[in-house]
Amino acid sequence: MAERLRLFNPGALVWLGVAALAALLSALALGRSFSADPALDAIIRLDGVAPRILVSILAGAALGFSGALLQRVLRNPLAEPATLGIASGAQLALVLATIHAPLWLATGREAIAATGGLAAVALVLALTWRRGLEPVSVVLAGMMVTLIAGAIAAAAILADGRYMMSLFIWGGGSLAQQSWGPAMGLALRLGLAIIAGALLVRPLTLFALDDGAARSLGLSLTRVRLAAVAVAAGLAASVVSEVGVIGFVGLAAPALARAAGARSPAGQLVWSPVIGAVLLWATDGAVMLLEARGIAGLPTGAATALLGGPLLLWLLPRLRMIERPPMRDRTARDLHHPRPRLALAGLFLLALVLVLAGLTLGRGPQGLHLATGTLFADLLPWRLPRVMVAAAAGAMLAAAGTVMQRVTANPLASPDVLGVGRGQGWGWPWCCSASTCPRPVPGLPAPRRGLPRCSPSSWRSPAARVSVPNGCCSPASPPRRSPMRCWWR
C-alpha cells in the first residue's frame, strides 16, 4: 500500500500529463485529412493510423517489461534489449534470412528473430559470466556484440544495393502499419510474457539479496536468470521482428518507474510497461505530427534515441562501478606470446597475402579472376590508393586505440566505443548538406583531384563533367542541392 501511495506523487501526475499529450497527438493524427477522397481517408485511418497507435503502445509496453526483467535479474540498471545486443542480434538474423532464405520469413519470422536475439544475449552472458555479470562488463560486452552485429547487418544490406535499402528504414524502428496483424501479434506475445513474469515475481524478490543468501533460501539463480532472460529476449525479438530496432525505451521505462516510487519487483513489472507505452506512444505521436508538417521519413526508433542519451549520462554516475585497475600496462604480462617474433612474422605474411589479393583478385563474368600483365597494370592505379588508404586508416585507428587504452586503463577503449566515430558521422552529413562552399571543410577529407572538378564552374562545362567517370558531376548524376555533396560521396 505504501508503494501505491508513493506512485501518486507529482511524478505520476507528470506521466498522466504525458499520456494526455499522447492522446491529443493521436487524435490529431486520426483527424488529419490524407486525401480528397473520404473513402480513402477512412481506409488510411482504419488500417494505417489506428493500428500504428496501438502498435506504439504495445511495443513500448513490451520493451519496458523486457527492460524491467533484465535489469532486475542481472542487477544492472543499464540492462535492456539494445545494450545487451538482443535487438541487434534479432535484426541481423532477420537481415540474413531476408537475403539468403526469404521463404523462412513467411512462417518463421518470430523464430528467426528470437534465435538471433537469444544468440546475442547468450554470447554477452558467456563473456561476462566469470566476472559475475558485473554491470559495466555486461554493458561493454553488449556494446561490442551490438557493434559487430550492426556492422555485419549493414554490410549485408549494402552488398545487395538499392534493393535492400528499405531494410535501413525498417531497422531504424518505423511504426508505419498497413493492417492490424502486427498489433494483434504483439498483444498476444505481451500477454504471454506478462503471465511468465507474474510467475517469476517471487524468485525475483530474492535477487535483492546477494547470491549466497539467495541460494541459502533455495533459489536456483542460474535457472531463474536464464528463464527471465529468455522471456525478455523473446519479447524484445518479437518487437524487432514487427517494427525494427527501437532503443532506450527498455532502459528509460524501468528507471523512470523506480524514480516514480516502484521499488518491488511486482511494482516495477507493472509500472515499467505502462511508462514504456506512454513514452513510445507520445514519441510516435510527435513523429506523426512532424509528418503532417511535411517532415517525412523520420523513424520513431531514431527519435527515441534522443531520450536515451541524456538518460545514460544520468545513470552512469549512479552505477556501482568496479574498482579501476592500476594505471599500468598489463598487456605484456597477461597477453605475452611465447614466440613474439614468429607471431609478428605470421601477421606480416598474412597482411602481404591480403594486399596481393586486394590488388589482383576480382570478380569477372566467369567468376573470380586473377589480374596479371596488362590487366594488372590497368587496375593498379585504381586499387593501390584504396589499399594504401585502408592500411593507413588501420594504423591510425590502432594508434588511437592504444593511446585511449593506456590513458583510460580500459582494454575495451577505442574510438568507436567512446563515440568518436559516431560523433563524426553525425556531424558529416550536417556539414555537407548545410554548406554551399565548394572548398573542403577543415577536418573533413576531400579528394585532391576530384574536388576541383566538382566546382560550380565545372558543372557548366560538358568536357569537365565527362572527365569524371561515374562521378557526382557526370551527366548521369547532376548536382542536386549542395556542391559539398560532390566530394563526400
From TrEMBL:
<dbReference type="Pfam" id="PF01032">
    <property type="entry name" value="FecCD"/>
</dbReference>
<feature type="transmembrane region" description="Helical">
    <location>
        <begin position="82"/>
        <end position="105"/>
    </location>
</feature>
<keyword id="KW-1133">Transmembrane helix</keyword>
<comment type="similarity">
    <text>Belongs to the binding-protein-dependent transport system permease family. FecCD subfamily.</text>
</comment>
<dbReference type="InterPro" id="IPR037294">
    <property type="entry name" value="ABC_BtuC-like"/>
</dbReference>
<dbReference type="GO" id="GO:0005886">
    <property type="term" value="C:plasma membrane"/>
</dbReference>
<keyword id="KW-0614">Plasmid</keyword>
<feature type="transmembrane region" description="Helical">
    <location>
        <begin position="302"/>
        <end position="321"/>
    </location>
</feature>
<dbReference type="GO" id="GO:0033214">
    <property type="term" value="P:siderophore-iron import into cell"/>
</dbReference>
<feature type="transmembrane region" description="Helical">
    <location>
        <begin position="229"/>
        <end position="257"/>
    </location>
</feature>
<feature type="transmembrane region" description="Helical">
    <location>
        <begin position="136"/>
        <end position="157"/>
    </location>
</feature>
<protein>
    <submittedName>
        <fullName>Transport system permease protein</fullName>
    </submittedName>
</protein>
<feature type="transmembrane region" description="Helical">
    <location>
        <begin position="342"/>
        <end position="364"/>
    </location>
</feature>
<keyword id="KW-0472">Membrane</keyword>
<feature type="transmembrane region" description="Helical">
    <location>
        <begin position="384"/>
        <end position="404"/>
    </location>
</feature>
<feature type="transmembrane region" description="Helical">
    <location>
        <begin position="187"/>
        <end position="209"/>
    </location>
</feature>
<keyword id="KW-0813">Transport</keyword>
<keyword id="KW-0812">Transmembrane</keyword>
<keyword id="KW-1003">Cell membrane</keyword>
<dbReference type="InterPro" id="IPR000522">
    <property type="entry name" value="ABC_transptr_permease_BtuC"/>
</dbReference>
<dbReference type="GO" id="GO:0022857">
    <property type="term" value="F:transmembrane transporter activity"/>
</dbReference>
<feature type="transmembrane region" description="Helical">
    <location>
        <begin position="111"/>
        <end position="129"/>
    </location>
</feature>
<feature type="transmembrane region" description="Helical">
    <location>
        <begin position="51"/>
        <end position="70"/>
    </location>
</feature>
